[in-house]
Protein: 4-hydroxy-tetrahydrodipicolinate synthase
Organism: Stieleria neptunia
Amino acid sequence: MTQRRGSDFAGLSVAIITPFADGGVDYDRLKQQIEFQLEAGTRCIVPVGTTGESPTLTHDEHERVIAETIQCVAGRAKVMAGTGSNSTAEALRLTKRAAKEGADATLQVAPYYNKPTQEGLYQHFKAVAEAVEIPVCVYNIPGRTGKEIDVSTIQRLAELPGITMVKEATGKLDQCSAIVGTTDLTVLSGDDSLTLPMMSVGAEGVVSVVGNLVPGDMIKLVHAASNGDYELARKMHHQLFALCSNMLGLATNPIPVKAAMRMVGRDTGELRLPMTPLDEAAEQQLQQTILAYGLASAAAV
């Protein structure tokens, strides 16, 4: 089988939470989170993505979180920096800065709110890919951006050497199948609960939210699927499915995972408006989910 471009990012990537305290970024706690991931064996850290509340970060904070992550990781894993924007000029600025800091790749979300045409999407990603030497992971998440990147556009983007990966978060298994079947790009699941189904048709890993909480179990799932051990992979899928669906279904990411991290003793601090904490009923549901998963000793509201 021909090796896919971007396959060195196969496995578990974790979209790391940005911890806040007293209105600012808590960089000490960020480093603690990163060390927890590295000890578990996470292959790649993804700072300032959706889970990292990137829309609420100032430009200076955005750049510093990436820089601090790269310095903390210090080559022990890869760093895929979230440097996308709905402004191509801003995406270029952020990506060039991340590349200069030493990022291994860039996660480029589709431009949001302004909803460009498919040609506009192509030209946006092309401009970024041609401006930097680090590989680009195209992030297709229409539920957040309001615009889906069509398979035909991804096929065009696959002709550009700098585009090597797609984080596929449309929720469509057919979309994953079409990309895997017609390009040599590495596909990474953008939905924790779809990791195994997507890997069964050729995806090579996941950019995970739940991995903030249980990286070891996500690694076990991904490794089993990669090695063709589908009995173990299915077991891990069903074990993780309730956690993924029950936790992430309570509210918009990263509200539930931040609450869950606090419950298991890995407090990531505040949320920033417009994100607000879970209400009491949702907190109780989340605690029951955590207890049912087997994290009982640390769960405490």
Q: What stands out?
A: Residues 7-216 form a domain with the TIM Barrel fold (CATH 3.20.20.70).
